[in-house]
Amino acid sequence: MRTLTRWVLAGQRVVADLSAVDEAVYVAVAATPTPTLDLRLRQLSTAANNSKISIAVACGLALVPGRPRRAALVGLASVATASATANLLGKSLARRQRPDRIAGKVPEARHVPMPESASFPSGHTASAFAFATGVASRLPWAAAPLGLLAASVGYSRVHTGVHYPGDVVAGALLGTVAGSVVAGIDEWWPGP
């Protein structure tokens, strides 16, 4: 029993230390003046609401028969999987409070509406990485541009003050796993 108690206490200390680092990085991002990026990252963060960017790219891919059309399907199935996992399971279990943009001194020029859901994990990031991973499983050439887009969406969520960096890292991992699982299932599913 004493060993278990020590492990629990050690785990709590690790979580507290990681949380302190997470908050420090959040404040450092907020304190870095980036007037040229502020508007564009705010627009990107807003455009990623409800996976609109992924849906638009999937619509474009769906117009091309064969592998691109199947990639669109795998990408959207990956988004659905990641979004459900992040928003229905992850956020309800973690219940992490959103960052305090005022205390963190996030410039008002960066603000987007603060979501009411829990902060951990980032659903926007999970969906973006899931889409990139799912599409890349069918179209390897799309991995770099969609991966860069997903990373940009994730960073935009920290830049606008609605997520801690740790939320984004967790979202990226969740999305990558979700996309990989859906791609693995797709390998066994009959089709083009």
UniProtKB/TrEMBL annotation:
Point out the signal peptide segment: none
Membrane topology, as annotated: Multi-pass membrane protein
Q: Which Gene3D superfamilies match?
A: Phosphatidic acid phosphatase type 2/haloperoxidase
Q: Which CDD domains match?
A: PAP2_like
Tell me any Pfam family this protein matches. PAP2
Q: Which UniProt keywords apply?
A: Cell membrane, Hydrolase, Membrane, Transmembrane, Transmembrane helix
Phosphatidic acid phosphatase type 2/haloperoxidase domain residues are 71-183
Please state where this protein is localized. Cell membrane
Classify the source by domain of life: Bacteria
Any idea what this protein is called? Phosphatase PAP2 family protein
Species this chain originates from: Kitasatospora saccharophila
